[in-house]
Amino acid sequence: MSTRIRSIADLAIEGRRVFLRVDLNVPLEAGRVQDDSRIRAVLPTLKHAAERGARLLLASHAGRPKGRRVPELSLEPIGQRLAELSGFEVLLTDDCLSEATGKIVADLREGQLALLENLRFEAGEEADDEGFARELAKLADVYVNDAFGAAHRAHASVSALPRLFNERGVGLLMQSELDALERLRSDAPRPYVAVLGGAKVSDKIGVLEALLERVDALLIGGAMANTFLAAQGLPMGRSLLEPDRLPLARSLIQRASERDVKLLLPSDLVVAANPDASEGLIVRTHEVPDDAMALDIGPLSVEAFRQQILPAKAVFWNGPMGLFEKKPFASGSLGVARAGADCPGFTVVGGGDSVAAVNQAGLAERYDHVSTGGGASLEFLEGKVLPGLQAVST
Ligand code: ADP
Ligand code: MG
Is 38 a catalytic residue? Predict the structure, then answer.
């Protein structure tokens, strides 16, 4: 496999119809866009393409309509927001493939862009269907993928489709994702510190193993830490953990010590009777009561993590330190978010929930890179070949 990936800057897009795969899968509530950061993230590519006279056809998925038309998952509100933010007139098509849609795309004028209705209304999308891709390909001359968040999925618009174009590459957002994550994957400055948290060890085994080969320190919080603590024989009360992953956690701890990677687990925790409790109790890690659950890392742990993060030359953070959606259990994640923001090294945060924590704290600008892809960023760091990247390679 060749791995050369061209940037939109190197593609001949002048005056041509460009199929631009974007990730506009934003949270919607009652037909309103709740968080438009993914829409904002593609604006530089739109501007670049428009300035060069491209005729843009944008396409995205939203939610999981499973191949059927689900009116609540129409891209209508997303298209409206895109129009407000970009200043373009956004022509939303009724579907992906009808004659009317073809006509809208064919008639595109300057200052207009077309937005295909939700790709996942078509069963062919998630099935990576060749026939569906061939029909989509008729709509454009050039293919550009700027949807990093979807790059790890072998779906038609990111996998089968780009192979049908000679002129294909990635957009500016994708390029910035690849630049930042490639730096962490192949030549991260040292010391390199990774902070991992979130709900499960099992979601992140691959990246845990890959990071152990590269980092100087691995800091673990969140429910993921519960499994590691239990693996060391500590009673974790009613905490969320994965009993079937205790042996794995033990072998990761062993591997870290063999490789001289500093593996830091929380030394204190915030516990409560249940996730709806209005406040938590700070306890040392070996003092979790039988009837309580650990829902955040404690202040001593935050301080210890901060001491590792501040002098680091590279930091990668994925996964919150606790149930940060609830105020009594948000301090650990906010503390780590602040430490990452205060670190003068190269700092990257990825993962839907971790990024939400950073945004909630208003600290996104102080990171070198905030990844728009959760699963995709982990698979990339793991060293996996992402279908969406392989398919745009030339
Ligand atoms: P990301 O989206 O950043 O990759 P994950 O999806 O892996 O992160 O995990 C985030 C979820 O894990 C959040 O909903 C958070 O509330 C939950 N979580 C983290 N720590 C705990 C904990 N100690 N107990 C219960 N839930 C937790
Ligand atoms: Mg998540």
Answer: yes
Span 107-131, average pLDDT: 95
DSSP state of 87: -
Q: Is 124 a catalytic residue?
A: no
Would you say residue 35 has pLDDT above 90? Answer: no
Look over the chain and give the mean of its residue pLDDT values, rounded to a whole number.
95
How many Å lie between the centroid of ligand 2 and the Cα of residue 352? 5
| Percent of the residues in the chain that have a pLDDT greater than 70, as a whole number | 99
Domain span at residue 254 reads: 188-382
Judgement on whether residues 275 and 329 belong to the same structural domain of the protein? yes
Distance between start and end Cα atoms, the chain: 9
If asked whether residues 157 and 204 sit together in one domain, one would say no
CATH at 115: 3.40.50.1260
Residues 43 and 49: beta-carbon distance below 8 Å? no
Domain for residue 394, yes or no?
no
Which among 172, 201, 236 is the end of a domain?
172
> What pTM was estimated for this model as a whole?
0.92
Which two three-digit tokens encode residue 208? 């845990």
Instruction: Write out the H or E segment, with its range, that includes residue 369.
Output: strand 369-370
What pLDDT sits at residue 1? 44
Q: Please give the distance, rounded to the nearest whole angstrom, from the Cα atom of residue 354 to the centre of ligand 2.
A: 8
Q: Which residues line ligand 1 (CB under 6 A)?
A: 197-199, 203, 222-223, 240, 294-295, 318-320, 322-325, 351-354, 374
